[in-house]
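User: I'm curious whether this sequence folds into something compact or stays loose and floppy. Could you predict its structure so I can see for myself?
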Amino acid sequence: MKTKDVMKTVQPFPRNRLLMVDGGKLARQRHTIHGLVEFDITEARQKLRRYRQQTGETLSFSTFFLACLGTAIDQDKQMHACRDGRGRVVIFDDVDVNMLFEVEVDGVKAIRPHILRGVNHKTLGELEQEIRAFQQGGHAASREAGFIEWFVRLPGFVRRLFLRFLLKNPQWMKELYGTVLLSSVVMFGRGSGWGIPQPNHVLQVTLGGMAEKPGVVNRRVEIREYLSVTVSFDHDVIDGAPAARFIQRLKKLVEGGYGLG
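Assistant: Here's the prediction. I'll summarize afterward.
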């Protein structure tokens, strides 16, 4: 039987994607619960614009949200607790947030992680400066990039064995993965929508789309700007009631424009 040739392009599978493949396999073993919520960010975006005009400093929405996240966790550090291999729960004082950024590597857009240490102790300006430095070339020499480059060269069974050990060692987890993951799909376009991740952290926050919708303010209908947010938590470590309180606390900080005056 004759077959028709099909025009196609065959490319090697990006080696760095193996980390996502391994992480996805392990994530299926977690008892993750996802909360899909909307934050009214109208006032926060207005305050951001005023902040830039008054200070002359660049400040991204991602940096602002990161500061709110660090503060919300700081008020209940159980939200980023880690289980160890001996059945104990370890709660760190520092909130180390692993963020994913789109950067340029050898002329090609790629996603790279960066761990911002002690977010709950840093100012908006300090966080913005660190993020900009990473995006503008710091990713090439980052500790995370070096680890990933080494890690993905290992055989598959060795990588997964290492990750299982890592997830049961809170100190290693903190150093190599951070205590919380903040991911953003809003960078790829506008429009309402939630991302549903497969997390390996006890707590992961995923920023979805931004969209204008009618909202009720002082009993009047107005056009407001909403951000879709997914809060994913490991139900083995975090109960539903503390998770709900955390979401409300984070929502209040973001909607009130925390730290922007």
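Summary: Residues 32-255 form a domain with the Chloramphenicol Acetyltransferase fold (CATH 3.30.559.10). The helical segments are 18-27, 42-55, 61-74, 124-135, 143-151, 156-167, 170-177, 240-255.
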